[in-house]
Amino acid sequence: xxxxxxxxxxxxxxxxxxxxxxxxxxxxxxxxxxxxxxxxxxxxxxxxxxxxxxxxxxxxxxxxxxxxxxxxxxxxxxxxxxxxxxxxxxxxxxxxxxxxxxxxxxxxxxxxxxxxxxxxxxxxxxxxxxxxxxxxxxxxxxxxxxxxxxxxxxxxxxxxxxxxxxxxxxxxxxxxxxxxxxxxxxxxxxxxxxxxxxxxxxxxxxxxxxxxxxxxxxxxxxxxxxxxxxxxxxxxxxxxxxxxxxxxxxxxxxxxxxxxxxxxxxxxxxxxxxxxxxxxxxxxxxxxxxxxxxxxxxxxxxxxxxxxxxxxxxxxxxxxxxxxxxxxx
Length: 329
Hints:
Blueprint: H1 2-19, E1 27-33, H2 41-48, H3 51-54, E2 57-63, H4 67-75, E3 81-84, H5 87-94, E4 101-108, E5 113-117, E6 133-135, H6 142-153, E7 163-165, H7 173-179, E8 184-188, H8 191-198, E9 202-206, H9 207-211, E10 217-222, H10 223-228, H11 230-249, H12 252-259, H13 268-280, H14 292-304, H15 314-317, H16 321-328
Parallel strand pairs: 1-2, 1-3, 6-7, 6-8
Antiparallel strand pairs: 3-10, 4-10, 5-8, 5-9
Helix pairs in contact: 2-11, 2-12, 11-16, 12-13
């Protein structure tokens, strides 16, 4: 009887192990990204250059379109790791979650949106936005909070000095801007460049250049997953670091050639221009360590927007052990 129980336990353990691995023997990791953007170039490089595979990982990427959906996917075990704005981890923590998300590897260190105007404005100043019809991003999301912070720094109250619309879903914002009577919008690349190329808009400013160092998009996982899969988290972080270094040392054109399969509707020249914009403003983090300065800037931006639910200490939601290990070794 004891032998039978032992064999059953062993069979269950073997099944669990095999379920986490694919036919190649690599460990499978499900990764949810908040949107598809050139802003996440190092992530696509890690996949396409085989850096994950070299670590014995097979990363299955899904795009979950929006911070709320992405965090829900992570918390419900629809993904092992999420690439999403670090503000979402604060929202979850403030809800007294028993198994909250931990930020362990930073991918981008500035805002990734650009201010796009419907009409050409060669002499643009931020004062041009006053009394304009502005299509904003989701309330409580990083694009909107950073956008509001930048506008306030230029003396513009986004809720008093603009006709601000925030009722459009994240994925539908580009289409709404193109077809509506909005004068300004925040867009990520390559969408901003596509609009410019098609004559549907003109890039007039960068929110990334205006907002400074902030952990805009970060890889995070539930605490329970990290406790049970610390080796996989370490391997994942090492692959990301290798991709970040490759992106730092490579030209925009070389990067564009690698990530082109993820942007079938964008030609190579447009991708190159988009990547060059991000590289020129140091948007791509060169290592995965999320520092205290960035975390405090994030909380200040959230607080300024009236969206900080709790003053969460850096050490509570940020784990730099894996990042520091791979960088130092």
